[in-house]
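Work Package 3 (structural annotation) set out to generate three-dimensional models for the target panel prioritized at the project kickoff. During this period the team completed the workflow that converts sequence records into discrete structure tokens, so that structures can be stored uniformly alongside our sequence database. As a representative example, we reproduce one entry of 53 residues exactly as it appears in the project archive.
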Amino acid sequence: MTTPMPDDRTRRIMLWVVAVGFFMQTLDSTIVNTALPSMARSLGESRCACSPW
């Protein structure tokens, strides 16, 4: 039993969902990395202590 191939419209929608997901992840990382020094200062920590890695 084989599964039917998705039509062109479905593929295009899936592509947009994945692209938006990657964009949101990049945007989130940028916001966190930009705000991290300020958050560390507010908490009285060094920048390295608040680093997620």
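The helical segments are 8-43.
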